[in-house]
Amino acid sequence: MRLPWLTLLPLTSAASLQRITTSFGPNPTNALFYIYVPDTLPANPAILVNPHWCHGSAEAAFRGSQYANLASKHGFIVIYPQSPHTADSCWDVSSRETLTHEAGGDSLGIVSMVRWTLNKYSGDSKRVFATGVSSGAMMTQVLLGAYPDVFAAGSAFSGVPFGCFAPTGRNNSGVYGYWNDDCAKGRVKKEAEEWKAVIKAGYPGYEGWRPKVQLFHGTKDEILDFVNHGEAVKGWAAVLGVEGGPVKETRDTPLKGWTRFVYGEAGWLEAFTAEGVPHDIRVQENTVLEFFRLNYTEGYFSWGEGGPGVKPVRV
Ligand SMILES: *[C@@H]1O[C@H](CO)[C@@H](O)[C@H](O)[C@H]1NC(C)=O
Ligand SMILES: *[C@@H]1O[C@H](CO)[C@@H](O)[C@H](O)[C@H]1NC(C)=O
């Protein structure tokens, strides 16, 4: 196929998606490591992790959003991990291993990619972020819960709460890639304190600083029921100590029919209700970048800064 018009476009960047095949640290499930490194970077670049959706790939995630372009513009690195589970290319968000700090699973492989990148590019370890859609949103919540010491913030589009996909009433050790239909259909409901216990079990004994959380969900989600949005809000609100309902509500933001609810004065939890939107939600790159302050040149948002009264202690 010939694409003659390409020659008319200014070539702004030579950077492209690369696969890292060297050993990059513990990766027990053999997740694949793809990375986008802009040609020009600041001295200590931030890192954005963008896990793909089910039946997706690193390449599809790379092409399916503006994050790589924005990384070139603002000078950060994007890691596009790829699921090793070839049957459905979903992420493992059910096993004890993936849901527990340093215990293994896909989450540990992804964290190894982060650590390798921090080392290789002198990255800013206090500005590591995660965002994704669907299975990528579920993995984002897994990363925030199991690795609160690694991530400064996360943003999840059409996901489920941390731990919701773990099989109920069963030992989930080694139970990788389990499809929890009860969770998907919105039948897994817990009290705020129960979700808090589930999230805290992701890193037993951890009392340190917790990442900020941003959640988006369509009210007409036919794959991962909208109930999951409310359940996730309850859990994170309890963990972050911002219970008691939203302190601010803004209609028609960032799109018409979407409403932003902010929990806690410090804005540690933001939840967007997308009225009438199905599972296939439109990613809002600019709103995510603003939450992470990845489009700022000064006044960065960093791990350990601010928050609802939790001491910045890295264990
Ligand atoms: C769960 O299974 C794992 C591996 O089979 C085992 O090591 C562990 O003791 C079990 N945990 C419980 C609570 O039964
Ligand atoms: C970052 O992006 C947001 C959303 O587009 C915008 O409102 C904000 O002004 C931007 N901040 C900077 C410093 O450019």
Task: Characterize the structure shown.
This is Carboxylic ester hydrolase. One of its GO terms (biological process) is xylan catabolic process. The protein has 315 residues and is of the alpha/beta class. The protein has a single domain (17-292), classed as Alpha/Beta hydrolase fold, catalytic domain (Rossmann fold). Helices cover 24% and strands 17% of the residues. A ten-stranded mixed sheet has the order 1-2-4-3-5-6-7-10-9-8, sandwiched between helices. Strand 8 (248-251) and strand 9 form a beta hairpin. Bound molecules: 2-acetamido-2-deoxy-beta-D-glucopyranose (2 copies). One 2-acetamido-2-deoxy-beta-D-glucopyranose is lined by residues 286, 289-290, 295-296.
What binds here, in terms of ligands, is:
2-acetamido-2-deoxy-beta-D-glucopyranose
The CATH architecture designation is 3-Layer(aba) Sandwich
Report the CATH superfamily. Alpha/Beta hydrolase fold, catalytic domain
CATH class assignment: Alpha Beta
The helicity comes to 10-25%
Oligomer: single chain
CATH third-tier fold name = Rossmann fold
How do the SSEs run, as a string of H and E?
EEEHHEHEHEHHEHEEEH
Terminal-residue CA separation: 54 Å
Beta strands, count: 10
Number of domains: 1
Radius of gyration: 18 Å
Protein name: Carboxylic ester hydrolase
Keywords: Carbohydrate metabolism, Hydrolase, Polysaccharide degradation, Secreted, Serine esterase, Signal
Family: Belongs to the carbohydrate esterase 1 (CE1) family.
GO molecular function: carboxylic ester hydrolase activity
